Structure formats: structure tokens, C-alpha cells
Amino acid sequence: MTVRFDTLSNGLRVVTEAMPGLKSASIGIWVQAGGRHETAAQNGIAHFLEHMAFKGTERRSALEIAEAIEDVGGYINAYTGREMTAYYARVLEADVGLALDVVADIVLNPVFDDDEIEVERGVILQEIGQALDTPDDIIFDWLQEVSYPGQAIGRTILGPADRVAAFGREDFRAFTAAHYGPERLILSAAGAVDHDAILRQAEHLMGHLSRRGGEALVPARFQGGERRELKALEQAHLAMAFEAPGIRDGAVYAAQVWSMAMGGGMSSRLFQEAREKRGLCYTIFAQAGSFIDSGTVTIYAGTSEADIGALLDLTADEIRRATDTLTPAEIARARAQMKASLLMGLESPSSRAERLARNVAVWGRVPGIDEIVARIDAVTVRDVAAFGAGLAGSGPALTLYGPVDRAPSLAAFRDRLAA
């Protein structure tokens, strides 16, 4: 595999990775602008803007955008995160140039037609309604809000319905003018790609763009707290979060190993203790997530109204107990799972393109796979235990949804954690 990285004179970054033997490629533009870059009045606009990119440009109608890619058997999509928005396509080798032309067109030249805005507004309001009807989705939005209250990074990506109902053409134009400058764009491609050809096309399509600058991010502050929403559901849903290192902090690997050992699979501690041995739940897992300057480890479970108290107690006990009892075998298994997930994901050009873009955004370079694997392998039992020990003294965030009126409070959970 060959990674190549260049920067145009206007700051736009182009990174590619050729994957010999492949006949297809993934190519896209990652914009360093997402939910975290919105003001409170703009909450939801980054996601709405992502939708509007497919609703017509100066050169193509919404149908022509879809047909341009699907006529050659390709696939085009986008997503909005808290720190980035991505627009990407997967096509055969011969159609990489076409895909780049289409993706650049939808990112740079959306027309924001008033009729299309109204159509897509209805779609997004339906999406918000669907999220509210999906307990194991919405509970993570609430957990983010409780973890980072009063901050852009804590607000929902979809935005509240009343904000979405009010956005218009000038709102979209203002957001793109502020955040879609070339220095915030990363063109990333992987698979059957020719770096030099992509670089030339990028210069042709985007080399004329002028830098726009941008305000520095407000540092994230994890605070924690509790939100409890009562509803007549079959299951009680709970999610908790603890502060973890940001992606640039070397301790992030210990946090990831800890979450994998605690709830990363069927052999993990929480799965074995809560489900296999005591039958307190059907689903329970832990995961780690990182932003530029902060992060969380989260635990989620769905259980019955009768068992939620016991499940919360068991979770606190297992977190506390793990500090002194995690074994070399558990850590080795967690490291192996992390490495396997990383390496298996790299068999997909789409995963590779996303990895390239994210690493360029964070580091300004693309660390080699061997470098990442070495960092994972360097995590010791002591490192993981030290991270876990810090959780007992931290102020976690806790969200509860469903028949949860008799569930223990955050204060009770924190007391048991510190016992």
C-alpha cells in the first residue's frame, strides 16, 4: 500500500492510498466542520446542509446527481459527525474522475432551492421523529448532552425540530461561507487510484478556492450529570459515560483497551457477569470514543424494570473490581480484538479513505499501520488499571429511559463506585 499526501497552495489537502489488485475505489471530501462548529441557533444546520448537497447544484439536478453515480454502478452518500462532515462515493476504477467531479460539485456548488429545502426539511423532521422512537439511539444523544452540558459538542447532531423548521437558504450560505474553506477540506481516496491524476483534477476543480479561516474550537469540558426520562416501554435503557482522553493523548489506547476488556465482546467482563452468569440483560457493551480534545468511555445496557437496580450495582462493582483484578490474558485479548478490528477494516477502500482523512485532520499526517499496532501492543495491565482506577473518582454521566422511576440515582451509583 502506498500513501501519498499533498497540499494545494490554498490549503486543500489531498491524500490517497493505492491498493494493488482492487478494481474499485472510494473517494470523498471530508470537511472539518460538524455539529461542534455550530452556534446554539445553528444546531442541526451542518446535518441539514449535508442533506441539501444532494438536492441540486449549479450543474446537476438532484436526480442527475444520483444518476451520474448509479449509471456507472456506483454508490454515493454522506454523513455528519460532531467534528467532520463527509461526502463520498464508491465507484469502479475507470469512474474515479467522474466521482470526484460529482462529489466536488455537491460540496462546492449547492443551489439551496427553496422548494427542495422544504422537501428535505420534512425528511429531517421525520428522521428526528424516528430517532425519538428509537430508545437505544436517543439515549446516546441525551448522554452526550449530559456529559457536555451547554456546549456545542454536547448538542444533538440532528438538532431540535424547532430549529430545523426555521433554517433557510441564507443560513446554509452563511455556514458554508464560514466553514467550507479549502483549508478545512480534505480530499481522500483509496483503492484503485492514481494520486497524480487526482491531484491534477483537485487543482482544476478546487484550486481556485480562497482561504476563509475560521474560529478556534471552544475546548470541550466533560462535566457529567443525570437525565431520567420515564416512558412506558418494555425495557429500561441505561447509558453511562466517563471522561476519557482525546485522540491526541497517548493514554487513549489504554482507555480503548479498558472498554474492550470490560464490554467489547462476549468474553468481556460485563457481558459474562451481567448476561451470562446472572441473566440481567440481553444487551450490554462498552466502547470508547474520542474527539480532538476530549473523549468518553460509555456503557450501555437494556434490561427490565425489575433488574435495572441490580444491573447498575453490578456495573459499578465490576468497574471498581477491575482496577485490581484485570489479568494479562484479558488485556492481551482486548489488544488482539482492537488490532483485528483495525486490520480487517482496512480491507475496505471506504474504510481506508476515511482513515486517511481522519488522520490528516488530527495529525497532519497518516501514521503507518505498524505504528498504530505498536501503540496498541505497548498498553500494559498497569496502564489499563490506572485508567480504570481514575473512573471511580470521576463524575460520570448517566441517562435512563423507560420504566426507570425506581432506578438508583447517579449519586447512589457514584457512591457504590467509590465504595
Q: What is the end-to-end distance?
A: 51 Å
Q: What percentage of residues falls in helices of 4 or more residues? A: 40-55%
Name the poorly predicted regions: none
Based on CA inertia axes, which overall geometry fits?
A: globular
Structural class: alpha+beta
| Pattern of helices and strands | EEEHHEEHHHHHEHEEHHEEHHHHHEH
Multimeric organization: single chain
Rounded Rg:
23 Å
SSE order and pairing:
Layout: E1 2-7, E2 13-18, E3 24-31, H1 45-52, H2 62-70, E4 75-80, E5 85-92, H3 96-108, H4 114-132, H5 135-147, H6 161-164, H7 169-179, E6 185-191, H8 195-206, E7 225-230, E8 236-244, H9 252-263, H10 269-277, E9 281-290, E10 295-303, H11 308-325, H12 328-345, H13 349-363, H14 369-377, H15 381-392, E11 397-402, H16 410-418
Parallel strand pairs: 2-6, 7-11
Antiparallel strand pairs: 1-2, 3-5, 3-6, 4-5, 8-10, 8-11, 9-10
Helix pairs in contact: 3-8, 9-12, 9-15, 10-11, 11-15, 11-16, 12-14
Please sum up the structure shown:
This protein is an alpha+beta fold and 419 residues long.
Can you characterise this structure?
Helix 9 packs across helix 15. The mean pLDDT is 96. This protein is globular. Helices cover 46% and strands 19% of the residues. Strands 1-2-6-3-5-4 form a six-stranded mixed beta sheet, with helices on both faces. It has a five-stranded mixed beta sheet with strand order 7-11-8-10-9, sandwiched between helices. It has helices at residues 45-52, 62-70, 96-108, 114-132, 135-147, 161-164, 169-179, 195-206, 252-263, 269-277, 308-325, 328-345, 349-363, 369-377, 381-392, 410-418; strands at 2-7, 13-18, 24-31, 75-80, 85-92, 185-191, 225-230, 236-244, 281-290, 295-303, 397-402. The chain has 16 helices and eleven strands. By secondary structure, the protein is α+β, with helices and mostly antiparallel strands.
